[in-house]
Amino acid sequence: MKRQDYISWDEYFMGIALLSAKRSKDPNTQVGACIVNAEHKIVSVGYNGMPIGCSDDEFPWAREGDVLETKYPYVCHAELNAILNNVGFNLAGCTIYVPLFPCNECGKAIIQAGIKQVVYMSDKYANTDQVKASKRMMDHAGVRYHQLQTKLEDLSLSFREKDV
After folding, report:
1. How far apart are CA 121 and CA 98, in angstroms?
2. What is the pLDDT of residues 52-102, one digit of tens each?
């Protein structure tokens, strides 16, 4: 008899997005993204961070203060990085998994890339203009979105050989 406690596709791909987020150097918010095609194949991943060639030791990570001394004008969001990290796959019709609902800038990139579905965990910024604009554009462009439904509270990984 096969195992019954395996994770769903949505849980698996969100897990990849959460694992990707662990690569982020952002001291406050770590976000990952995982793009998947209709055949359940991962076509790209990304996380929030500085653009290639911009040292994450030399650019600011502050959340408040003079705009040019905060992270906001510099950091690439996980969704954009996942789209840009794609190595030539057609993203039309794909699904993107992200822990946070995408902002308007990422929403535009998602629409332009042809991604047709967003699966997210948290919509904690739902009342911001950026997320309202993102939803408005996605609704207009026919991009579906829904919150991940899971009973999992956590999912752990082990690097101990005895657990393999």
Report:
1. 7
2. 999 999 999 999 999 999 999 999 999 999 999 999 999 999 999 999 999
**34 burial class (0-12, 13-18, 19+ CB within 10 angstroms)?**
buried
Q: What is the rounded CA–CA span in Å between residue 149 and residue 111?
A: 23
- pLDDT tens digits along 137-147: 999 999 999 99
Residue tagged 């657990």 (tokens): 163
**Secondary structure (3-state) at 3:** coil
Residue given tokens 């967003």 in the structure block = 118
Q: Could you list the active site residues?
A: 79
Which residues are paired to 42 by β-bridges? 36
User: What value, to the nearest 5°, has the Cα angle with vertex 77 and ends 157 and 123?
Assistant: 75
Q: Is 42's pLDDT higher than 80?
A: yes
Helical ranges in the chain per DSSP H: 9-21, 78-85, 104-113, 129-141
Check the CA dihedral 40-143-17-23 and report its sign: positive
